[in-house]
Structure formats: structure tokens, C-alpha cells
Amino acid sequence: MEGREALIDDEVKIVAIILIGVMASITIYPILAENKVVEPFSELGILGPKMKLGDYPTNIFVGEDIHLYLYVGNHEGRAKYYEVQVKLGDKDMNVSDTTPLNAPKLATYDFVLPTESNQTFPITLSISKAGLNQRLVFEMWTLSSETGEFVYHQRWNQLWLNVTSPI
């Protein structure tokens, strides 16, 4: 009998250990999975001088300061090194989610954001040439860990401006 009781005790211990393992897995899995990003994405936004959408300048003078706010959010699941490039184009120039604007940079803003964070900061720009229907384009670029160079991150915004020469 003692051998049989010892065998039953061993079986009970094994079942208890298995149950504890299953309960621990059920308890720990949501904690480990919580930090996993299912659909990673980044955000790029341009806010007007009052830190709101929609209060953008539309008619400015050559050389006049344009006060805006740049917003960037990181939901990529890891820290990211971002560069926002500001370019000036016109209605005939193409920019899309796959193709950056082929125009010189007016300004660049570089910064690192931890995951699940965002940053909004003021920027001041000016345009040196007059023109109607000019596009002030803001493109998001990220540092590639493979090449060590910035690559177009397929996020962009634009503001349409009429720029006139001062009298």
C-alpha cells in the first residue's frame, strides 16, 4: 500500500505542477502581450499658430515668418529616430505616400521619440519667392537601422499658400 500511496502522491504532485504552470501562463501572457504592437504606425501633424487644426495662414508675404506647430507621434513599438523635411513645391509637383516631393528642403527637424510617445513643438518658416498655389510640404523620414540613412516613411502633410512680394 505504501508504494501505491507514494505513486498516487507523485501523480498528484505532477498534476498540481502542471496546473500551476497553466495558471501562471494564463496570468503572465496578457502582461507580456500587452507591450506588443499589433499595427505599428507613426503620426505626423501640422497645427496652426494657435496649436489647432485649420487656423493656417494662406496668404503671406515673401520673407514673412510663418508660425506653426509640428506634431509627431510614435506607435511603432520601439524608439524611432525621425526627421521631418519641409519642402516647397507647387500644384504641378507630385508627392504621395510612396514618392516624396522632388524639391529642395527649406528646413529639417530631427528627434528621437520613445515608443508610445508624441511631441509637439513650435517651428518658424519663411518663403523667399513669390508665387500662387505654393505647397509647403512636410515629409516624415526615419533612420534605417540597416543602412544608417534616412528613408521616406510615407507620411506627409501640406499647406497651400499664396506668397506675394511686399509693396
List keywords for this structure.
8 strands; five-stranded mixed β-sheet; single chain; 167 residues; 2 domains; Immunoglobulin-like; alpha+beta
What is the annotated CATH architecture of the largest domain? Sandwich
> Class of the largest domain, according to the CATH hierarchy?
Mainly Beta
Main sheet: strand order: 2-8-7-4-5
The number of helices is: 1
Relative strand content: over 45%
Give an overview in words.
There is one protein chain. This protein has one helix spanning 2-34; strands at residues 41-47, 59-61, 66-75, 80-90, 105-113, 117-125, 131-143, 150-164. With 167 residues, it is α+β, with helices and mostly antiparallel strands. It folds into two domains: 1-36; 41-164, Sandwich (Immunoglobulin-like), CATH 2.60.40.10. It has a five-stranded mixed β-sheet, with no helix packed on it. The protein has a three-stranded antiparallel β-sheet with strand order 1-3-6, with no helix packed on it. Strand 7 (131-143) and strand 8 (150-164) form a beta hairpin. The longest helix has 33 residues, at 2-34. The chain is rod-shaped and about 110 Å long.
